[in-house]
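tool_call: predict_structure(chain=1)
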Amino acid sequence: MFAKSLTLHDPINVFKPLAPAIGVVDGPQVFMACPGLSFLKNSVHHAHDSGRTRQWRSLAALAHGLRRGACRQAFPDALAWASPGVRERGQGAAIVFDCDLGAQAPEEWRDALQQAVISGSFMKEVVFFHEASRTLILTDAIENFELDKIKPPLRWLMRAAGAYHPHGQMPVDLRATFLPRRKEVRAAAERMIAWAPGRVVLSHGRMIDENPIAALRYAFRWAL
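tool_result:
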């Protein structure tokens, strides 16, 4: 229904450095299915530590839950980490997970990355902070679509969801599933703010590199 509604962040599938040891790879359009409706997600941003390219690319892709099987085939020697609840919801059918993510960074990357869990009633999101570059990495917790890159009617849906640049935040429908766990969301938001990131890399929409702490306070104002 919304094919070719989105202008991609060209060039796609090309590593774009952000700082020493970290960068993003903008991906192609990703189509998601709802009953009676097909809609478009924005380019997927992956960040990874170049010194651990295979491990971190796989982690970023699997944390977002997209194309798990293809990612595992591309990096067969990488560990596959599941976000909390993925196995229980049956989303791991396309891949065998080796480990589960939690609120604390495991030994494999704790010297380079910190992490936290944003808990909702339906899903949980694991967020990562790359200390050396002060980069916060999110998936669905904030979406920041650029409306001038989107054609109607998808543009109207994004505006209604409220998750568009420069007012990036969690879409209203997804936010409703996190409201019952507001206290836990507040704790995660306060931890992200305390990390004092210099930029926020997102899976959906434009990276936030101007006043990121203010952007976090705005995005999670409903929990703070």
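agent: The radius of gyration is 16 Å. Proceeding to next step.
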